[in-house]
Amino acid sequence: MCNKTEMRKEYISFRNKNITSDALHEKSKVIAQKLDKLDCVKRAKTIMCYVSFGSEVYTHDIINTWISQGKQVCVPRVVKNKGKSMEQLK
Q1: Listed residue (64, 63, 82, 86) closest to 74, CA to CA
Q2: Cβ contacts of residue 49 below 8 Å, gap of 6+?
Q3: Based on CB atoms within 10 Å of each CB, which residue in 7, 24, 48, 80 is the most buried?
């Protein structure tokens, strides 16, 4: 049986091999459009999100859109030997 770390590595490897950069950005746009249609997102003053890396759903554009709409966007931050926190993007 795989542990969480092994499963994560296996999934990321599969994802990296099976999606092109163009497809990733196209699918990410669709997700962003769906998010922007949600009432809870429309009403939100603060949104927590992650900053995408590698082959994750691309979040940079939607983050910039939310900031330009005047929303506070907070993202997780991990600093080695210091722990985890939430940081507001500006």
Answers
A1: 86
A2: 59, 62, 63, 66, 73, 74, 75
A3: 24
Q: Which whole number is the average pLDDT over 25-39? A: 94
d(CA 86, CA 19): 30
For residue range 43-87, list pLDDT tens digits in order. 999 999 999 988 889 999 999 999 999 999 999 988 888 888 888
Cα–Cα distance for residue pair 53/55, rounded to 1 Å: 6
Does this model's pTM top 0.85? Answer: no
